[in-house]
Amino acid sequence: MQVHTPANDVVRSHAWVWLICGILFLASFVNYGNRATVTQNADDIIRTFETNREGYGRAEGKFGYGFAFGGLVFGVLADWISIRWLYPLVVVAWSAAGFASGQAATLEQFGVCRFLLGLFEAGHWPCALRMTQRTFLPHERTRGNGILQSGVSIAQAFVPLMLIRLDPWDASGWRLSCGVMGFLGLPWALLWLASVRESDVRRPVIQTDEHAAGTGSSQEIQEVPLWHIFTSRRWWLLLLTVVCVNVPWHYNRVWMPDTLQVDHKYPKEFVDNFSAIFFLSSFFGSLAVGWTISWLAHWGWNVHRARLIAFGGCALMAACAVPAAFQPRGTGLLVLLCATAFGSLGLAPVYYSLNQEMSGRDQGKVGGSLSFLLWMILAVMQGQIGKLIDADPEIRPYLLAAVGLLPMLACAALVLFWGKRAARAVTP
Question: Is residue 28 a contact partner of residue 335, using CB atoms and an 8 Å limit?
């Protein structure tokens, strides 16, 4: 991997770059591990609080509202406060909220904990994306983002296996796992502070050369006023893309375990084991995209074109949700769901890389504004999905098929309307 360093800074070693990749991977692991302990135990939580799926969906929606507002708050703070200090603070805060979720006595208390968990977990992405934006050159940036994103998959593969081993010790079926995952934020914060210097989070950002073959020339990103970013065509395309990428992923994250248990009559232990395989498939999708783009750039492909090719391939795999929605219980269903997982999470690193092209100075605000709007949609969506399923359980396959087609819409929009920046002369 190549890391960009200013001429007056000490060059950081490749070993340090890999260390940062590992730390960011672990941050995503802790982030998603705290939320996966809840979504994987949806049925147990519904029984604990004697509610229905609409009530559970509303509680999950509070997480979405917290994440939405956290995207705005921490997007601004990440541009204002050094992420060397902000990042560990939000990790410890969301870990405390995750621990508290397991202590909730009522559904209302649980909803408050979910809101706080979402609020602080939202701080992960502006901090992490500022770090990968400043650590990697454009042709390696999607790979760095892929490693960052892959922690999501491993967390969601690990949590079901952890639950199988904790269940005999936990009469509630879910509270102990919240405590276990909530503990992990503190050692992560200490590792971050020991490994990252202030100069590491303040490096200039290199923009993608959208014209040249291969990796192209290295030029610092051209900053423009924030209002110009929000009125640009690319920002609106990113809004469409982030919605189309995340709705399928979060639909499966929240409702797939419940669907397999209720509609297809798989036992909980089987669903926990299959969930580990499902999310392991998404782990390989997240990593494969970054390596593919780096390899194509090495062989002379323009970096932006390589990103679009990789995005299109993942969108096709995510569309496997359409046949999966109407498959009966059996191997065919499980294989198609794993293909959907591979494609769905492979889309995210490309989206992050396009997001990072908008600004270096205002990266947090760009990502935070998009995150806010996305999670306002997701917060409403989860409650409405729960309501629809309670009213008509037969609607599930149609919902899965519909969300599976969204990445294809985003791919078409990016190919047709993203365009290219005006070419600039290379600085000697």
Answer: no
What are the E-state strand segments in 95-216? 206-207
Instruction: State the pairing for strand pair 219-220/206-207.
Output: antiparallel
Q: Which residues pair with 3 in a beta bridge?
A: 136
- Closest alpha carbon to 377 in 39, 123, 120, 68: 68
Burial classification of residue 362, based on how many CB atoms lie within 10 Å of its CB (0-12 exposed, 13-18 middle, 19 or more buried): buried
Q: Which three-class secondary structure state does DSSP give residue 11? A: coil
Strands (E), 137-282: 206-207, 219-220
Token pair 């790979």: residue:
143
The phi, psi pair for 221, rounded to 5°, reads: -65, 140
Give the separation between CA 70 and CA 83, rounded to whole angstroms: 15
Residues 6 or more apart from 42 whose CB is under 8 A from it? 56, 254, 257, 258
Q: What is the per-residue pLDDT for 62?
A: 84
**pTM, full prediction:** 0.87
Task: State the residue for tokens 């993203």.
Answer: 418
In contact, 326 and 401? CB cutoff 8 Å: yes
In whole angstroms, give the CA distance from residue 388 to residue 350.
Answer: 32
Task: Say if CB 28 and CB 150 are below 8 A apart.
Answer: yes
Contact 71, 125 (CB under 8 A): yes
Q: Which residue has the tokens 């205002």?
A: 362
Six-digit token string for 303: 């970096």
What does the block give as tokens for 361?
A: 């100075």
Determine phi and psi for 206, rounding to 5 degrees.
-95, 130
**Which tens digit of pLDDT belongs to each residue from 262-275?**
889 998 888 878 98
Task: Tell me whether residue 80 is exposed, middle or buried, using C-beta atoms within 10 angstroms of its C-beta: 0 to 12, 13 to 18, 19 or more.
Answer: exposed
In this predicted model, what pLDDT tens digit does every residue of 301-335 receive, in sequence order?
Answer: 999 999 999 999 999 999 999 999 999 999 999 99
Q: Rounded distance, CA 131 to CA 380, Å?
A: 31
